[in-house]
Specification:
Layout: H1 13-25, H2 34-46, E1 52-53, E2 59-61, E3 64-72, E4 83-86, E5 91-94, H3 102-115, E6 117-122, H4 130-138, E7 146-149, E8 156-161, E9 163-174, H5 185-199, E10 213-223, E11 229-240, H6 246-255, E12 261-268, E13 271-272, H7 278-289, E14 295-299, H8 304-311, E15 316-319, E16 333-335, H9 336-355
Parallel strand pairs: 3-6, 3-7, 7-15, 8-14
Antiparallel strand pairs: 1-2, 2-6, 4-5, 5-16, 8-13, 9-11, 9-12, 10-11
Helix pairs in contact: 1-3, 3-9, 7-9
């Protein structure tokens, strides 16, 4: 995709905040992003920007490709009443997505219009990253730089994420009286996962970011409908630090497998970016311009930045307003002053990268 010229357009603070509140007010759990996507399209069209919704539901607004601002439209489920709370010296927006990641999404949309850089709002990040996966397959070239939108706090710059490998274990055994000593499928599932957990047990002094951590996320088991067998199914996830790769972790987990099979459904490589890239430097300067001290962060989870780093050879960071401790939380909320500050920082960074 070739870069498209776009004229920078002023977005008053009141309009920027209105976009944020509107987007938070529109329910957009994964798979139901269409109405929020339309609101983003309306915003870009109102500022004479080329924009469309692509085949999977991403909002695409190409422009100066020196930098691509991108965040996800979808949120996790959860009904948090949307309100703007007046405090002594600020206003606080309450609502699902205000932090993860509608706050970063709206801030990037505003900064993209104010500076004339490229923007994409992607779908499905909370489930399977189908939006970002489609984006990297659909583009012909990498952008000059990527700023991925997730909450880092106005002065935080996220450089690294662990990778992810997810799979489903299945085992079947003959049914029999529960007094028999032979292990059944449920025991086989538990024994395999216990062995995997022991294999990757970290040192208590080792940072979580540098460990492989294991998590069963769903399990079903019992006697089959015909009464002839015992069945067990377990969905599992392993987080992979940058020092390892997903294939070596997969092989190690499979080495503990004695009974049953495991099918791996999702493999996302870890990412760790240098703090010395031009995009990281631009953020440090911009944050200091806002009288704040930059913080360099590493996240123990996984984001769309992992997808972009695996496909594009360009500098990137993740950034956005909001306290990530409130991700998916029942008290998710965002100070509007922090939103304003993040927009200003994103503007500064976008202009810097466009001029280089």
């Amino acid at each position: 995709m070739s870069a498209n010229a776009a004229v920078a357009s002023d977005v008053p603070t009141e309009e920027a905040r209105e976009l944020l509140v509107d987007l938070v007010s529109i329910p957009s759990p994964s798979g139901e992003e269409r109405e929020a996507a339309k609101r983003l399209v309306d915003f870009f069209e109102a500022h004479d920007r080329e924009v469309w919704i692509d085949a999977v539901g991403n909002v695409r607004a190409p422009a100066d490709d020196a930098v691509l601002l991108t965040s996800h439209i979808d949120t996790v489920p959860g009904d948090i009443p949307v309100e703007v709370e007046e405090t002594g010296d600020d206003e606080i927006l309450w609502g699902r997505g205000s932090v993860d990641a509608t706050g970063p999404l709206a801030a990037m949309a505003v900064a993209a219009v104010r500076t004339g850089v490229s923007f994409v709002g992607v779908v499905g990040e909370e489930v399977d990253s189908r939006g970002s996966r489609y984006l990297v397959d659909d583009r012909d070239d990498a952008p000059g730089a990527v700023v991925n939108g997730e909450p880092s706090g106005a002065n935080g710059i996220t450089l690294g994420y662990r990778g992810l490998i997810a799979g489903t274990y299945v085992a079947t055994s003959e049914s029999g009286h529960t007094s028999r000593p032979d292990p059944n499928a449920i025991q086989h599932a538990v024994r395999w996962w216990s062995a995997v957990e022991e294999r990757f047990e970290g040192d208590e002094y080792e940072p979580i970011f540098e460990q492989v951590t294991t998590k069963p996320v769903d399990i079903e088991g019992g006697v089959s409908e015909d009464g002839l067998s015992v069945e067990a199914t377990m969905d599992v996830q392993l987080r992979v630090p940058p020092a390892l790769d997903v294939e070596s972790v997969r092989e190690a987990a499979e080495a503990e497998l004695e009974v049953g099979t495991v099918t791996w459904k999702d493999k996302v490589p870890p990412v760790m970016m240098s703090p010395r890239t031009e995009v990281a430097r631009a953020f440090r300067v911009a944050i200091r311009e806002e009288d704040a001290e930059p913080r360099l962060l590493r996240k123990t989870g996984t984001s769309d930045m992992n997808i972009y780093a695996g496909a594009w050879d360009c500098p990137m960071v993740t950034y956005g307003p909001g306290n990530s401790d409130l991700d998916h939380a029942p008290d998710e909320r965002l100070p509007l002053s922090e939103f304003d500050q993040s927009v200003a920082i994103l503007e500064h960074v976008s202009r810097t990268l466009s001029e280089d």
